[in-house]
Amino acid sequence: MAARNRLPPWHEQIRLSNGREVLIRPIRPADADPLRQGFALLEPDEIRQRFLHAVRELTPEMADKLARPDAKREFALVAAEPLPPGEALVGAVARASITESGREAEFAILVSHYIAGLGLGRHLMRRLVRWAKGRRLERLCGDVLEHNQPMLALAQSLGFRREQTDEPGLVRVVLDLQPGRGTHVHDHDEPQAA
């Protein structure tokens, strides 16, 4: 039997439906500069959908903070070229942060328009759900602009429910993670990546 090329935990090489290969892996401090470079390529609407307001630039300090999540409370994955961190262009970022209550995490996902619509957002969201379940959290939630229909449709298809927010134009999507609360996102549901 041939030896399989084993990847470290939370690393996965997948082929997108357009044939491009990306490596999904935990974010690294060396990703700060590629994050800044990739940010400059984003369209204003992509930035608003992720940050929920206009952000002109990703400063070195902001990029460094994003690339160094607090391992006790945060989890962040990138979808990048299969090159070493720091050299690889980052096309998507997914992160979850445990809230002050310690019972839920808030998520955020940004997939660049260059690779949007290829199933990567769904793949990343399932990874965030798996992490949150492993932390035995009760809920995974996120705020989504009401006109971000692709993200709202993705959340609904994965079993998230909608909650009203006090902020006009925002929808909170929530997935209950505890058994018996209706969650149906399972790793074995996923199509196998090529």
Description:
Pfam families: Acetyltransf_3 (PF13302). InterPro entries: Acyl_CoA_acyltransferase (IPR016181), GNAT_dom (IPR000182). It comes from Noviluteimonas lactosilytica. Residues 22-178 form the N-acetyltransferase domain. The chain is 24% helix and 27% strand. The chain has five helices and eight strands. The protein has helices at residues 32-39, 44-51, 60-66, 120-134, 149-157; strands spanning 12-15, 21-26, 74-80, 90-98, 104-111, 139-145, 161-164, 170-176. Helix 1 packs across helix 3 (60-66).
At a glance:
This protein is 24% helix and 27% strand.
Helix-strand blueprint:
Layout: E1 12-15, E2 21-26, H1 32-39, H2 44-51, H3 60-66, E3 74-80, E4 90-98, E5 104-111, H4 120-134, E6 139-145, H5 149-157, E7 161-164, E8 170-176
Protein name: GNAT family N-acetyltransferase
Domain N-acetyltransferase: 22-178
Pfam families: Acetyltransf_3
Features:
194 residues; alpha+beta; 5 helices; 8 strands; 27% strand; disordered C terminus; GNAT family N-acetyltransferase
> How many DSSP H or I helices?
5
- Radius of gyration equals 16 Å
Write down how many β-strands occur, each being a DSSP E stretch of 2 or more residues.
Answer: 8
Shape estimate: globular
Q: Biggest β-sheet, characterized?
A: 8 strands, mixed
**What structural category characterises the helix and strand content?**
alpha+beta
Q: What topology, given as strand order, has the largest sheet?
A: 1-2-3-4-5-6-8-7
Q: What is the terminal-to-terminal distance?
A: 20 Å
Determine the mean pLDDT. Answer: 83
Instruction: Please trace the helix and strand order, writing H or E for each element.
Output: EEHHHEEEHEHEE
- Percentage of residues assigned to helices: 10-25%
List low-pLDDT spans: 182-194
